[in-house]
Design goal:
It is a single chain. The protein is mostly helical and about 140 residues long. The chain has a domain at about 1-100: Serine Threonine Protein Phosphatase 5, Tetratricopeptide repeat (Alpha Horseshoe), CATH 1.25.40.10. The protein is about 80% helix and about 0% strand. The protein contains nine helices and no strands. The chain has helices at about 1-15, 15-30, 35-45, 50-65, 70-80, 85-95, 105-115, 120-130, 135-144. The longest helix is centred in the first third of the chain and has 14 residues, at about 15-30. The model has no long low-confidence stretch (mean pLDDT about 95). Keywords: Repeat, TPR repeat. Pfam families: TPR_2.
């Protein structure tokens, strides 16, 4: 199992989404679904523009692994891409409440708040990114 999840993480890091999708679908036919197979499949489908399929797999992942809050962030990204900012905010906040706190999450949550017109909250998110990584150009740009 460790080898499989390590392989998927490596492929995700290199954005090899077209390679991940068939690998995960094959694995799902051979074995019961596991967290990394479901999540990598959902992320990959999202990044190749197949958002409805991505949503389906990530929702299945969240149902089977509700304590894995990173999936909430992934679902938030789908909603953000579809310009459904209230739903994106709700999923991203669920991820932060569950302890998932990454630079990418705060940047994207800041964008969502910005699009919703919640500028004070957006500013707080971008400042959090800068606190974590002082040279983060995008966060500085979003602050104006």
């Amino acid at each position: 199992m460790w080898f499989w999840s390590h392989k998927l993480k490596k492929l995700l890091a290199t954005h090899a989404y077209d390679a991940i999708i068939p690998m995960c679908l094959d694995r799902l036919q051979q074995r019961p679904p596991d967290y990394w197979t479901l999540r990598a499949l959902g992320i990959s489908l999202m990044n190749v523009g197949r958002t409805s399929e991505s949503f389906e797999w990530l929702t299945k992942c969240l149902r089977q692994y509700p304590h894995k809050v990173a999936v909430q962030y992934d679902l938030g990204l789908i909603y953000m891409k579809q310009e459904c900012y209230s739903q994106a905010r709700d999923h991203m906040l669920a991820a932060t409440e569950g302890g998932y706190r990454t630079e990418a999450l705060f940047v994207n949550l800041g964008r969502v708040y910005y699009y919703l017109g919640e500028f004070e909250k957006a500013t707080h998110c971008f400042r959090e990114v800068i606190r974590r990584r002082p040279g983060h150009a995008e966060a500085y740009n979003m602050l104006g």
